[in-house]
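Notebook entry, cofactor series.
This is the third protein in the set we're modelling with a bound small molecule. For this one the ligand is flavin mononucleotide. I'm keeping the input format identical across the series so the outputs can be compared line by line later. Sequence and SMILES below, as received.
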Amino acid sequence: MAIDSSEFRRVLGHFPTGVTVVTAPTEQGPVGMAIGSFASVSLDPPLVMFCPGKESATWAKMSGTDRFCVNVLGDDQADVCGVFASKADDKFAGIEWSTRVTGSPVISGSIAWIDCELHAVHDGGDHDIVVGLVKGLSTENDNGPLLFFRGGYGRFEQI
Ligand SMILES: Cc1cc2nc3c(=O)[nH]c(=O)nc-3n(C[C@H](O)[C@H](O)[C@H](O)COP(=O)(O)O)c2cc1C
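Returned structure with ligand:
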């Protein structure tokens, strides 16, 4: 059965995700991109993963580094997601950030951060499957998460 790409997007859009911004330091300054394809992989050793598109300019810049930080966005950070989903030249222009363990940017206001060393890159079709070895992680506040579902943003509601 041939799979139509817009139907693939529509159906997979029914799977809700959190929203992260994956950041890294480069010689040209900090870079980052909005990522929904983040997941935890292994507890021992502690591994996480995300899937950047092979055509992503940000991922191309990150490929020269051996580290990254996953910033989990809160439900008041949809604007931050918009910036990091864009193709702007300097996405960090209006962004406050600091560093923790690996020197990768931790974006102020994020609800959690997971600082990683690059562990492996696997082929994933038109995306790469990037696995990170966690070197440090913490929560920053008790805000709710920013969620992405059927192409729109939302908040988490306890049931
Ligand atoms: C909610 C959300 C989730 C996203 N998840 C991913 C993802 O998992 N992988 C990816 O390659 N792009 C993802 N994107 C799109 C990238 O953020 C965007 O294509 C990228 O930042 C474009 O800039 P670049 O080419 O300069 O890297 C997502 C965008 C949004 C809004």
